[in-house]
User: Fold these one by one.
Assistant:
Number 1:
Amino acid sequence: MSRLLALLAVLITLALPAQAQDSATLVSDRLEIAGDTRLIADGNVEVFFRGNRLKASRIVFDQATDRLEITGPIVLTEPTGQTLILAGQADLAADLSEGILTSARLVLNQQLQLAANRMMRVAGRYTALQTVTASSCKVCPGDPTPLWEIRARRVVHDEVARQIYFDRAQFRLAGIPVLYIPRLRMPDPTLKRATGFLMPSIRTTSDLGTGIKVPYFIVLGTSADVTLTPYLTARDSKTLGLRYRQAFATGLLTLEGSVSRDGLSPGETRGYLRARGDFTLPERFQLSFDGKTVTDPAYLLDYGIDNTDRLDSRIEVKRTRRNEHISARIISFQTLRDDEDNTTIPTVIADLTFHRRFSLGPLGGEGGLRLQTHNHYRSSASPVDGNGDGIADGRDVGRISARIDWRRSLFLPMGIEGTVLGELTADAYTIADDATFGGSTSRTHGSAGVELRWPWVKTEASGAVQVIEPVVQLLFSSSVAESLPNEDSVLIEFDEGNLFSLDRFPGSDAVERGPRANVGVSWTRHDPRGWSMGVTVGRVFREADLGQFGPGSGLAGTTSDWLAATTFTLSDTLALTGRMVLDDGLSVTKAEARLALSGPKTALSTSMIWAVADPLENRPDPTQEITFDARRKVTPNWTAKASGRYDFAGDQGTLAGLGLEFLNECVRFDVSLSRRFTSSTSVTPTTDFGLSLDLVGFGSGVTGGPARTCRQ
């Protein structure tokens, strides 16, 4: 009788909702007590215990042996939901930590499946499987062969270390054995970081031949890791790449680089190094740095690392708040261009900026104060222009600037908005190693004016809103020009963003002078169906031509060229921007267009630029170029890619690339082919072929795509 009471106590514990961590809840269609020690649950049985969930058709609990006999189909879900066990029958301990399952499958992170004849649960940590097939590919009833699979005599899954150990593993593609590995360890899909080899990739170039990269990832702790990537090619090129990452409480540090010995530069050691970091400092300041260096101009292109022709290294501390911006930075340049010398370009630049916006109380309106220092240094000490670029080879410049500005808007009759605006700047220069501009000098400059805007708004019955806004801006500035070198205001853009600016020069070395009128009109339409469009047309009229601007800017002469700009957006799928600068004869001075298309099957990004030659902007030849980058989903699994750049002025392509990607639920395969056509004394035209393969489900970080469709 006492044993029956004990069994009833177990039944009550199982049947009631869990009140403590070690309590269990059992739900079934029928409960039966057999003898003194056996509890039988039959029909749609579910057990909830320590976060585990067990579903079966029948469970027999034997109190004498403290074990469960389970009849399937069995579904056992771990507390995290990332591990799922399916089986036909099982004999398990009452706490589900140990036992044997037959005709079993282990599913990890809803990706990787391991099917086995026999599965053993050991110590609540290990799952051991016998005669195993592992794959993340979908298997169809009529075609049981997955795209890839790993077959092994024995597999052990360590749930704590989140590692999978294979014994006598055989890798198969479409059922064909391609690789045999006696021992194999791989991370399970839930593990983000684990020491071991990463998926290799193949790269073939016309300069280096065919090579293979085999990355090896090393975990150095919870906050640091390093990746070593040996790269060997058929043409005697040996490279070791390195990436080191460390996370801190306030930021992240990344170091990466590589060292190479190859036949392109016999007897020389080549390489590059890059250090990046972002950190949060006290008082909401941010520290960022990005340093780069390379041994020779061709290295980055030869090894497919980057196609930049100038290395920009910088360290900066800044803080931006609602009405304030503070920035201190140091920038270093290393040129990789054949026609430039590092000794004659500003290799070190230092800037300090304080910018504050504020209201002016009784005066009304909004004011601003900007204080700035700038210094740049050349390693050359020559005071003359020896390379013919119009700049003394050793010119070093120091500048201190202060600027105040003010604007106040008023509403006039008929809905006209009138604005009074002005600014005043003062600069002090110290120039060294320059026979023409050497010494100390200063400059003051002011601009003032009025602006009138008259917006006309119309709301249509459909809900669309149209706005037409003519704008006239009358400005006065001094026409006197100081003798100062211009290095930071050479490249000038004339667009809708600065059509109504007091100064269209981008830097501080040059200022826009003379009385002038900025005139323009804009039209915008916002349609409730999800599209919008805008058009701006404008022009600048001057009292006199002071020779400030070159022919390529569109701003030269007493009357500027016409500016015409348009934008068109369609929800989140299409964005088009374009602008043209045209003279009175409608000849194009400068034109550019950008198109971005993002659809369910097609993505396209393209840009075009067309500009006349302008020696003042260091462009002795016209610029006529188009670039594009396109992707097209041919099928749910196949994606075609193409990219290119064509130089119309030189009548030749500069870059071209093709690619094809396959992605399904278990594999990503990517093949690419690119060609660089440009050449110089340091680089030659090169063809690059790349091949990579990632298996979904083994910690690759790749998200699976559409699953295979089974034929009926």
Number 2:
Amino acid sequence: MNVRTKYRGWAAAGLAAVLAAASACTSSSAPAPRPNPTGAIADTPTPGVLRVLAGSELQDLQPVLDDARKATGVTVQLAFSGTLDGADTVSTGRADGKYDAIWFPSDQYLRLDQAGRSKVLSETPVMVSPVAVGVRSSVLNDLGWGDGSKVTWAQIGDAAAAGKLSYGMSDPSRSNSGFSTLVAVASAFSGAGAALTEADVQKATPQLKQFFTGQKLTSGSSGWLAQAYTRAEPGKVGALVNYESVLLSLNRTLPPEQRLTVVRPVDGVVSADYPLSLLSSARPSERDSFQRLAGYLLKEDVQKRISELTLRRPVTAGVAPAAGLPTDRRRELPSPGTRAVADGLLASYQNELRRPSRTVYVLDTSGSMDGSRLNSLKTALGRLTGADDTRGLRRFRDREQVTLISFASQVKWTKTHVVPASGSQPGPEAELASINSDVQSLRAEGGTALYGSLEQAYRVIEDQQKAAGDDRFTSIVLMTDGESNEGPTDADFKRFHDGLPSAEKTIPVFPIKFGEAAVSQLQGIADVSGGKLFDGGGSLDGVFEEIRGYQ
């Protein structure tokens, strides 16, 4: 019996009582714990508190959760994670005792793993949004697609292969919208009528390669992807692939010339149903809180408000979707039948289907990095050269160009590697070992010429692009534990960046704060380049892996 059936079995008997309890509980009850907008999670279970590991897009439900606290006495504390990372957290037992429930756009990846399935006691789908393609209106007109209501995935793929459609999409190894898109196109191109198999993926591979030639932006999160879309050169990115709700919400903030027509391919979609799922490790008191919250969220008036607030579709029968949401539904395309098929599809995307990457790591090896800090850096980067990575989550990808720049008072050395494709002679293993050898050779001494070393990274990329004449996903990762105290200043760097060609200006820098790094300097670099600041204070390993979703 799957978890959805299990939930519905006991929910049918208890929902009326749950709703009655929710209605009876008012703000005049005993004071409830305060809401938790910051993402901090209580270390131990607390009566009336539900600790939930969730997708970051659930932040838009905070007003509903505030009202739920008043109506039910249940305070929801949200900690955020990517969907597939969250599935790993549950499957490996790291969520046991730390969280009471999970709430991601979908649990399809988690359900493919027996260990993961056993960790979930019950689940309640709360709202629905299909993956769709938001096409800039001017591009839609050029393609002759009318209002977009009759477009197929094949047409989208053909337009991408012909260079007529470029788009941004989140990384499927981290984000459920990217994973759902990958599953949707593989299912549509293969014509799979049931659970997706390895043979289906092989059949779809030629069309998948064509489809992904159009991907010009990648991201580990939907929020950063939307920001990158607005910063992109005019004409470079004509579409975004994401949930229908994200695209419609984005239109609320975009100027008219950048707004998107939401295309739901007629041959089918993969939808998120946002199941609020109770973990089997939750205590009885938290299970009671879960039932009260789930019952509240399914009430008709709450479902209506959720739809109007988030532009997702209600799941409670009889509740109309928010104005502007289409009332018809596309058929659901089949998902992978096993975890092996899903992980194989993800690894194929990273190493074969998507455009290759060009990544430059600018690494602070000044004197303050000596000792444990340098060892942490070597360990974290060394993990990116490992082979124990079933879905291409962290390892340097096949065909990726990786440049390491070691700097202190000046650039010490620059070394570049290109990882061969799997199956070639020699394969990727030897080059990955060579990258790791360079990483382990890092030595700490000297000052911190941060801005000058960063400028050198841009010059390296310019030379590489001219020599190769290619168009790769390109980014810079800057890791430092201090403040720039030699060479060019922040004002010098801004002038340098202003003088870059337009294509190079859009290369994002992802600074990593480590140790006593100057946050203002690093945030300024991220802002100028359109990148994102990461904090390596908790786990340098985890930060380097997280950044992989943006490269």
Number 3:
Amino acid sequence: METLPEPSAPTVVAVVRSTRSRPLLPRQLLSDAVARAGLWERLAARTVGGPGEPAVLLTPGASSYGDATTAVSAPLVEHLVDLLYERGYRNVAVGGARCGPDTWLAGTGDAHHRLGYRGRTAQGNAYRLVDLAQDVVPVDFPAASTLHGSGMSRRWLEAGFRINIAKNSTHPEYGYALCLANLLGVLPHADKHHHYRARRDAAEVVAALLATCPPDFHVVDAVVSSHGCAGSHVGRPLETGTVVAAPDGVLADLAGALLMGVDPVSSPLTARIAQLSGVPADYRVDGDLTPYQGWRNPPRLLTEAVRRLHPDGRAHRLFSIAAWRVDPGAATVTDTALARLSRGLTALIRGADENPVALAALCTTVGAAATTSATVQAWRNGYGKERIRRREVSLGVDPHTYALADFDRIDDVLRPVEGIVDALPADAWRMRWQHVGHAILFGCERTVRAPYAEFVRRVEICRSISYMTDYLGGRVHVVSRDAHGRPTRQIERNIYLAQPNYLAFYGGPPIDVCKLESIAYGERSQRISWRTVHSPNRSADYDDGSVTYSPADDGRATRIAIRVRQKFTLPLTWQVFRPETRPAVRDPLVQDSYRRFFTRTLDNFEAHYEGRPYRIGRRWDERDDAWASELPTQRFTDAVRLVRGAARQALAAGRLHGSPGPDGYRHVAPGDAPPGFQPFEELRETLRPAFSGFGRGLWEAVARDRSPRQPS
């Protein structure tokens, strides 16, 4: 008789609270919570070496910025060190990394002492203080991960057991910030906003960390919490007498959110990570989830306004920095305008929880900044594409969920659609299009005066989608290759600007789609066909199609044929307008937008063949301080300093030089002649390269346009 395997024990999230009938000290709360959540059993399972193994790394939230209320309690962390020592784990380190405009454990200053960490507990147990921003080594993040090519601190990677400790606090954008948000602090780059909020999606970053080198245990310090409009930014203490512990970060955050009285998935960070990483199939809550008394969550109006700030925009970064406490009198502050803005914003945040006028002023200020940011971003979509930052994203789907047969069926689905497109009449631009339901079938082609053999060598068919116009970025995962090493099946995620571009003014999101792709290499043609399987931002129901290369004029030219079937999500304003009921208005707009998009797309194919640049947007700068100089407050501060300097020199230059003579005239010697007005001299020298470079570039462009175009 076959014996069935015993079911595994459920994952436990422990919630231990101090009550009037059962008051507990913070150390008792911690001891009880980690024991009930199974910390010691999990540590014992990792003990494979001698005494003191494994090496345990604690990563407490340390974003205090002069306000200890927003940081994890150092005595609570040190009590956990004592508990580890009691059970023989003596190889313990407490790690932190730079976060925001301040530095914690960064080698200089007394930041770690200010937070209460001395390297030795009250019981005399020693622990090491390490900086997770130093000694960064490469990590084998998968090619589908947004962190592919990034590194982590050696301390994090070599730790045998990692315990993530978060502060219980609210957040003006996410609603709350617990264990998952705290993981952004263990990543190595000093400028967290630049690398993990703007350059990449924060949820995808945390999901990548959880999938590759995750923490082994999570603790929420809710003994004294920080609540209100922005508890993680500006401390507002509330005694909540609770410690939450769990082996899973998503579970710990779910319990913490319920204790705050909010829907756990109201946080876009938690909701996205739960979708990407999932939760344990079998778990249970050990404790009471009654919401805290007297707790204040951020107003919905404020969180919605902050979420409308584009993460890759200066307004979002400015708010993120200014919301922290910046001392205008600090010697290290060079941006006095930012310091003053920080002081005013902090005052508004502190007053907003009690004063409706302050709350209205705060929401109005952030809402105005969000509207301005959205308008600037929409304007760049159509008229300043070179200023838009390109996107670095994950693959967006799990490549292991698709079989080879899923790729092989793509052509079977597209062939009937392509047959309909080819049978449609061509318009004046030799383009074919037709509405079918709410979708659009479209086809176009162009013959390029380039030898077919050379064209297919330079313009790889497998990269056809990245040649499309308004392409912001994406990621490709190759599933199979042919005998020559060329991709034959691949999964690709693509992000484009909102189409047509003017829809960005109505709140239209970028087009973000994940596709399965099949690629065929024949003697007389090459073809890539794709089928949409997912849209992370729900911008498209489907965006299917194909690109085919074939020889023309006996191989002396190349024919490019594009056929697509698309259905994109319209902004709410346009959904109310219901353009499908007004074909006389809709059809000219659709025809014009498709003609513009695919004309520029075909131009890109030619540009790539000729080696000319065609990509929109800017690359991300690897330097941590790249955005610091771009803050508008810094530019305002520099402008004020320049005006003040100019005024001082103007007053000095106004003094008369030389000495009066008996003839009534002032006699000036050569050495007495006043120098040139320095600010104007500096401005002239600064602008000289720009004007000379423009003239030289214009001359070269005219000469290039007048010369006959030769294939390179």
Number 4:
Amino acid sequence: MSVHITKVVIKNYRCLLDSSVDLNPNLNVIVGDNECGKSTLLEAIHLALSGQINGRAIQGELHPYLFNSKVVTEYIAALHKKYVGPPPSILIELYFSDDPDLTKLKGRINSLKLDVPGVRMLIEFNEGYRAEYDDYIADPSLIRTVPVEHYIVRWRDFADNDVTARSILVRPSYIDASTLRNNGVANRYVLDVVKDSLTREEQVSLALSYRQMKDRFLADPKVAAINSGLEAKKGHVSDKAITVSLDSSARASWESGVMPHLDEIPMTLVGKGEQSSVKIKLALDVADNSHVFLIEEAENHLSFTNLASLIAHIAAKRGDRQLLITTHSSYVINKLGVDSVLMFMNGIATKLTALDPKTRDYFLKLPGYDTLRLVLSKRAILVEGPSDELVVQKAFHRKHGKMPIEAGVDVISVSSLAFKRFLEIADILNIKVDVVTDNDGDVARLQQKYADYLKHKHIAVRYDTDESARTLEPQLLKANDRAVLNDIFDTAYTTDEELLKFMQNNKTEVALRLFETDKAWNVPEYINRAVA
């Protein structure tokens, strides 16, 4: 069976208020800033396919923080206004390719009314608790969150039949390298994967060997002598005899006592980079029955060389099965395929291939793929070159007391011919961007060039309307006395014309002097507006 997820719809789940994501049938490289919802997207997909979160059934893991904070705030506000309707619900829908093996899942019971196979998980208020709920909301001033105790999980296909992970047929493999929060978790995960790779006969043999080891422990003369001494304490601390042994209860199977080793070193003592790599590779190797791989930030803890090896392994093992991988790494994007990039922001996923063809081609050819810098930024300032970048950096520091990057602002040096390429992405992803540009002696032409963006709330084109000050250097001279600049540059020009010629012939040196100096100088107003 060759199936894939074509679309994901998520409403009110964690940070995703209302998200609709179209997926590529094979490879999806998801990039976006921290806290933008990449991990939540993968978690929601796995939840809708497996019915589990954090390794446990969702019904037993319901808590108020699964709900989007905005809808919770609106719900509580509505209660204060005496609204008595149902509390908010969570919806996760997965739309599958129209494969004959998934016919039983096909129907129109979905939010888009499409006649395709799919599953939907709805976490909603259970009307059977209406009387209790009415008592609960009688005094809205006491309500602080969603009453999950009154909720039910409905897990159904698009034909409105109840489903289980077994009946869905689409098997996920969720691999999160970031869950290495402690050694026990890493050890437990690897053991689970190792266990999955063993045949039934091998597991039985291992269990028998482990039990025999316990028997040999009790037969050891030293242990027998210790237990004999402990038995003498009978009656002092308990009426029953006290002895030491290895746990042989059902919960103490071989998995709880065996630790994986790498080159005879316990897994818990191996570096986290190696743990992460082994974890991902083992999971891929034993996931032959999986149809969808969900991988969180494979680059965690890895050097460039080890990351290259891991990405090659992922690419080889995936075959033609669907892969969703989140990343902040340009290398991962380049290695797996830029054509498969999904730029993710505020629940919106935009394919790089969906951009204007000229814009797409520009970024596909761009060395280092600086498009990532824009996608991963909360705010960006686009400048025309290194001189402008230094002046903008200094202006920002003087206004805010910190460098732009410390405030989450990325100053990106871009050819002015490419400004509109970046603005197309900023427009789609709703990223706040300021463009700092020269007027080049033709303000009307500049305004015409950026006409499509001049009225955007999150995009601002900053320039000076004085056409006699065409570029950065005359703008600096216009904003400052000749004496001030002579002092900073350690020059002694007696006319503005001579000083300007020096500045234009030494653009980078001039900008660097302004960046490094502690002496006072005036920032051109259009740049001040950009760094506000």
